[in-house]
Design a protein that fits this description.
Layout (H helix, E strand, L loop, with lengths): L10 H6 L8 E3 L4 E3 H6 E4 L9 E5 L3 H11 L5 E4 L9 H7 L4 E4 L2 H4 L8 E10 L11 E6 L7 E6 H5 L13 E4 L6 H13 L2 E3 L7 H10 L4 E4 L1 H8 L11 E4 L6 H10 L4 E8 L3 E6 L17 E6 L2 E6 L5 E2 L14 E10 L2 E7 L4 E3 L2 E3 L1 H10 L3 E11 L3 E10 L3 H7 L2 H18 L8 E4 L17
Parallel strand pairs: 1-11, 4-5, 4-6, 5-8, 6-7, 10-11, 10-12, 12-13, 13-14, 24-25
Antiparallel strand pairs: 1-2, 3-7, 8-9, 9-18, 14-15, 16-17, 17-19, 19-20, 21-22, 23-24
Length: 471
Amino acid sequence: MNMQQNNPVSLRSLILATGNVSSHVLAGHDSRATWSELAHGSVLQGEPELQGRSVLVATSHQFSSAAALIELDGVARRIVLFPPDVPREHLAYVAKTSEADALITDQPEIASMPHGIGNVVLCGRSVAPADRDRSARIQTEWILLTSGTTGLPKLAVHTLASLAGSGWHAGQPPTAVVWSTFYDMRRYGGMHIFLHACIAGTSMVLSSAHESTAEFLVRASAHGVTHISGTPSHWRRALMSPQATRIAPVYVRMSGEIVDQAILNQVRSQYPMARVDHTFASTEAGVGFYVSDGLMGFPPEVLASNPLIEMKVLDGTLRIRSNRTATRYLGEDTPVLKDSEGFVDTGDTIETRDGRCYFAGRRDGIINVGGRKVHPEEVEAVINRHPGVAMSLVRAKKNPITGALVIADVVLKNDSSQMILESEGAAANAQQNDILDFCRTELEPHKVPAAIHIVSTLSIGESGKLVRRYA
């Protein structure tokens, strides 16, 4: 893909080059269009002049954002994606940091907010023919938001080449493939799938925050989805729904969180004909590698398996250098994204046991129990292996003696959580004690939860990850 400034390639031109533009569609919750309609049409109202601008895209619907991306790449100087789960009070900060001089939105309330952008363009979810010149003239910067330690989002700078440079296939010709993902396409995990569908010329079904998991699965089934991705938390929630049987994928992919053996086994059991992969990827580091052997963790040789991606473990965390990484963060006083050698420190800690590498957890998520470290994900992996558990979240609770205690919130399988919550305490105590006994056989004493709380649900953010909190 030649992305030189004097000969830029745009997403629109890549879509038109597939040859499948009229027979394959992008389907949203309540909108759909062929790739041809998207390449030649517009969702923008009026006759906006966006050539060379830094454009902030803040829509409630993924379909509108996707259509705007296709129209703007190669035309705008910079495209900034503002997902709806980012607090609106951060809009002015993002606008200032990205030097946005145009705003695209389908929400009148956002248009009227004090964001400092004078050029506001409203958009809809219907694609209308448009004869504007969309010839690619510049290499557009794509800005993806990621979480920041101060509460403000960080703005990671990518290009179409860095985001789409991880081309791969899952063993099916494009005509037989219908992609989907539980991710929001404005987050890295969803963007990766969206760009793959665009460039491969396959149909794609977008998820929606406006529908439940069950409703999404029914819609995915109606479109004949064959390839689908999500986080382990997405898949745990999906498998708890009776509608999980409505889809019959030939390819399942998990990323975004540590993949434990329990969820791998559950997905393979539910979809025995599917190839099940898990992958490491992040907004800043891009896609690192795929694992297809059905086991959690990865063999050490994976780190050297791709000549285009350099990976190493330094000071216990995974480092990545490739042309798929973001180039930098926008803004003042932002952290350094790459070290002096060009490696991105992912912050994900790696442990080696019996000749295999395992992700232990985030370096900044460790619970300190009396001076001894506990990775919440390690405890969750054990709890999730309990035959009665659907999913769990381990968190810290402040303690004046040890500094912190390990606490686990647990959702049980087969709607048992709600029945136990509504029943007498004896049933809950028996289930909690059984899970604790299981933990004691698998974990060191300081890692065993001090308490198990049976809950009916766990919060999953728009990123697809469990919402973690410290109490």
